[in-house]
Amino acid sequence: xxxxxxxxxxxxxxxxxxxxxxxxxxxxxxxxxxxxxxxxxxxxxxxxxxxxxxxxxxxxxxxxxxxxxxxxxxxxxxxxxxxxxxxxxxxxxxxxxxxxxxxxxxxxxxxxxxxxxxxxxxxxxxxxxxxxxxxxxxxxxxxxxxxxxxxxxxxxxxxxxxxxxxxxxxxxxxxxxxxxxxxxxxxxxxxxxxxxxxxxxxxxxxxxxxxxxxxxxxxxxxxxxxxxxxxxxxxxxxxxxxxxxxxxxxxxxxxxxxxxxxxxxxxxxxxxxxxxxxxxxxxxxxxxxxxxxxxxxxxxxxxxxxxxxxxxxxxxxxxxxxxxxxxxxxxxxxxxxxxxxxxxxxxxxxxxxxxxxxxxxxxxxxxxxxxxxxxxxxxxxxxxxxxxxxxxxxxxxxxxxxxxxx
Length: 406
Ligand SMILES: [Zn+2]
Fold this sequence. Notes:
Blueprint: H1 2-28, E1 31-32, H2 33-40, H3 44-56, E2 60-65, E3 75-79, E4 84-91, E5 95-101, E6 107-114, H4 120-136, E7 141-149, E8 152-154, E9 159-163, E10 168-171, H5 173-181, E11 185-189, H6 190-201, E12 210-215, E13 219-225, E14 228-229, H7 261-264, H8 266-279, H9 285-288, H10 297-305, H11 309-333, E15 337-341, H12 348-362, H13 365-368, E16 372-375, H14 382-396
Parallel strand pairs: 4-7, 7-11, 12-15, 15-16
Antiparallel strand pairs: 1-3, 2-3, 4-5, 5-6, 8-9, 9-10, 12-13, 13-14
The structure holds zinc ion.
Zinc ion binds next to loops.
């Protein structure tokens, strides 16, 4: 038994060293073996062995010489960005989006397929078709498939507990895909992976803690704490969309009344804009949409920018309610950065300022003053990029915080 335990430990150390060296080269861009040894505090021979192994796997390559420090100029190492690819999928409302993504988060191939009301088994078939097409589009070694899905997830077991729009209940999505494709599969909630995308590929990546509030058909927050995605005990961390913010408010699709989603989601805003268009023949909305049914977020944005007062009230009210949610989040987690993702961010600075003002009024001033609320730097691919980052984190350890010398 002892020998088995010792062997397992040696394997673990090897794996840890390999991940640590790969992550160091990845983070530095170009670096010599000697500098990898310095940065990781591993011995030179250990680094050389690990680098040889990584080069044999095609993950790392020599890319020329660095400046000489007196002696022979050192050989520089770099990660081969396209040596591995990942499939990332976003099961968004209205359309499924997918991409083939390399180790740097570059999208090599992208496919969007409209959902056209499909749910249940038909929606699952669409996932298969999307993955088939993406797999066919790459010749590179595939590390796995990452999926960001709306609804409640058991991320540990890859089971979609409840996704209302897709009519999925207790769907073992991970095992279904693993069996079909023979690849590792990771599934998590879409807002949660959006936070991971921002943390790994965003303009302000790095830091320890980050919250991303994703506003779409639903509203959810993804929380990264100490460099790790925080799921919570019930995997529902950040489910702020169904917290009541309006007393005696409108009924929500979850059955409760006055949820944040009923006043600040894309659906809620469009519904309110439609009501304005129906009741006011002079509304500026009519300039941008032929009928209330054709009102989209873009149309509402245009009317907002053009100065439609009724639309402005709806948008700023949504901002105030989001401010309440932000105040609660920072009250609990005290993070410095909160970013908002989703096409609703087209409402811009006036809307953001409303969120900030409400946050400052409702949280301890000393905390709120240090919190920055901004717009996510990643566009509409945020969820499938985050799902890809999930695969890269688990399969290669590229973004997980690593502790030296286990
Ligand atoms: Zn609700």
